[in-house]
Design brief:
The protein is an alpha+beta fold. 52% of the residues lie in helices and 25% in strands. The protein has 5 helices and 8 strands, in the order ββααββββαββαα. A 5-stranded antiparallel β-sheet has the order 1-2-3-4-5. α1 packs antiparallel against α2. It is elongated. It starts with a strand and ends with a helix.
Length: 193
């Protein structure tokens, strides 16, 4: 699944795929470390027989390292899959969900957005097309989103959404001149009576 998906009336944005890649590197490091410790235990356990409980300590350390590596990687993949930004017609919905720790859903109304900035700095960020997205709301509320793929494309979508919402609000709340003239005539007729 791509990290940027646009459907008929909404856009779903997932964090950049470099994040699971970095967590995968950590997972591979811990896996390699645990296999190295297991190899050391198999080859040199005879020379360590004089130290009490050495087999139990090495087995426990290898077991805990392997379990930590697998569990943390699986939990991060779940967190990565459900850390989404959904842009609807007049709202931005932020979803952060993990299996155990938290379930957060936040809704930002588009008409409250004052300024949107997208930043892409350094060489790898420009080559891989990711970086930060900053949304400033009314009353100095600032939301910062890290590792957003294609931040300039997201910026243009949010800008277009905000313009559409504001134009729609103007149509709803501003009375046209012809309707205003009719209201003034009715008020004059009421005052005469």
């Amino acid at each position: 699944m791509s990290s940027f998906c646009t459907k008929d009336w909404y856009t779903v944005i997932r964090r950049h795929y470099i994040l699971p890649l970095l967590k995968g590197c950590k997972f591979m490091f811990l896996l390699t470390l645990s296999f190295f410790l297991y190899w050391l235990a198999l080859n040199f356990i005879g020379s360590l027989e004089g130290i009490p409980y050495v087999r139990m300590i090495l087995f426990l350390f290898v077991f805990l390292t392997l379990n930590y590596a697998f569990i943390s990687f699986i939990l991060y993949l779940i967190y990565f899959s459900y850390n989404l930004i959904v842009i609807f017609q007049d709202q931005i919905v932020l979803i952060k969900c993990s299996l155990l720790l938290r379930d957060d859903i936040e809704v930002i109304d588009s008409y409250r957005i004052v300024k949107v900035d997208g930043f892409s700095r350094w060489f790898f960020a420009n080559v891989l097309w990711y970086w930060n997205l900053v949304i400033e709301q009314q009353r100095n509320d600032v939301r910062l989103f890290h590792f957003v793929p294609l931040p300039y494309k997201v910026l243009l979508i949010i800008k277009q959404q905000r313009e559409d919402v504001l134009a729609d609000r103007k149509r709803k709340y501003i009375i046209s001149e012809s309707e205003e003239g009719k209201l003034n005539e009715k008020e004059e007729d009421i005052q005469i009576l």
